[in-house]
Amino acid sequence: MAHFAELKAMTDPTGFTSDSHQVVQRVVVVGNDCVPSDMHQDGETWCINFFKGGIWKQTSYNNNFRKQYAGIGMIYDPVKDKFLGQQPHASWSLDSSDDWQAPITYPTVTEEGDVHYFISWNETKYQADNTKGWEAIKSNDTSETPTKYNWNGTAWVSE
Predict the structure, then answer these.
(1) What Cα–Cα distance (Å) separates residue 44 from each residue in 10, 33, 56, 157?
(2) What is the tens place of the pLDDT at every residue in 97-110?
(3) CA angle 7, 35, 22 (to 5 degrees)
């Protein structure tokens, strides 16, 4: 079976920019008898004819081409000919593998003994101080207002 993503031109759905993106609206399955080979133009043409229009790109269920399998809300980059996840935060950028990366390296300490850190990115903190961004709470903190910890590059420091 072949899989095709229907794309719709939209202003950046994240709101981080005013750029136009091709956003995945749905993914459909098409019989192999309608598609001569992977990424063949006839498959896209078949989708246009069958679904009466639209912009269609084939996606690989096994991630064999176009980076990864397309999902609703993902972005198709026609220059790179790849499906990419939406930018998670305004400060994040694509790395050489086209994966979104925070401007601060992910913390190396994620647990201490049996205690795990629940780690998340705080864009507001990063915008206020570009040395901060990663924050966490400890898995054993059951208080109504858990203590937050900020990553300083080598250790977690309580707020």
Answers:
(1) 20, 13, 5, 53
(2) 999 999 999 999 99
(3) 10
